[in-house]
Write a structure and sequence with these properties.
Layout: H1 5-8, H2 16-30, H3 39-60, H4 67-83, H5 85-101, H6 107-148, E1 149-150, H7 154-166, H8 172-181, E2 183-185, E3 196-200, E4 215-216, E5 219-224, E6 231-239, E7 242-250, H9 267-272, E8 286-289, E9 298-300
Antiparallel strand pairs: 1-2, 2-3, 3-7, 4-6, 5-6, 5-8, 6-7, 8-9
Amino acid sequence: MAVPPFLRRFGEPGRPEQAVLTAVVLGAAALINPAKLGPGRRAAYRVGLAAITAIDLFRGIPRETGPVNRVALTAGAAGTVLGLAELGESIDAKAHGALVRRGVRRPRTVLALATVALSLLSDLPNLREARREAARDSAANADSEAEAFGELPEGARSLITGMLDFSADRGSAALRAQLAEAREQLWDGSSGAYSEIDIDLPHPEALPRVVPHSHVFPVIARFDDPESGQPREVRLDIEEGRLSRLRIEEADDADSEDTGPDPDGNAEAHERGLWPSAWPARAEVTFSLESDSPAHGSRQG
C-alpha cells in the first residue's frame, strides 16, 4: 500500500514535519524519570535514546556520503549516546531535583517541554538551509523550464502546413489543430539541433489525435539548400497520434561530396545540422507522397 504524501514527509530530511516528529519523540522520552528505572528498564531506556539519535542522524546524512560511511557515522553517534548515558542521567537528575525544590508540581512535563523546544531550536538552522536550497532549486527549475521551449520556427511551421495541405490523409485536420498550439523543445538552448526539430504540445490532452498513432507522415518536403545548392528532404514524425519531430536529410541524389553546413568545422553550424540558414519560400518547396498509390505525384508549394 502506498504511503500517503503527508506521512512520507515525516521521513524526508530537512522537512519541518520530521523536526517536529523528532522533537515530540525526544519530549516523550524526557517524561520518563531514569532515576526510577530498574537496571533492565534503564538499559532499554538508554538503547531507545541511542536509537532515536541514530535514526535522526541517518536520515540527515546525504546519500552521496555512501552507505558504509552513513552506517559508520550513525553507529558512532549511537555509541556516543550510550557512552554519555550516565552523565546525561546525572544532569537530568539535577535538573529534576532543582525543579522540585522550586515547587514545580510536574517537573517531568517541564523537562519534556524544554527538550522539545531545544530540539526544534537545534533543527532551525537546518530547516532554514533546506528552505533556501528548495527555493534555489525551484528557481533553477523555473529558469530551465523557460529555456527548454521556444517558438516553432515559422519556416518549419510553413513546411508542416504545406505537407498537411498536400496530403489527403484524414488525420491532417487533427494535426493542423496540434500545429496551431505547437512549440519547439530546445536542447542546449539551440533550435533544430542536429538536423531535428522536436515538437512539443503544451496541453496535448486537449487536442485530437490521429491514427495510426506512431508513423512517418506520408508527405516529403524537398528543396535545395540556398548555400550549397544540395537537395534536402524533410519528413514529419508522428508519435502516439501527435506531432513529434521534423527531420531534415540529404536527398538520395545529393552530391556524394556534400559535407553539409559545416565544411570548416564551425560548431554552431554543426549543431544546426542540415537546416538551411534561411528557410525556403513555399514556392521553392516540392511536396510528394511516399505511397505507391496512382493518385500520388508531386507539386511545388
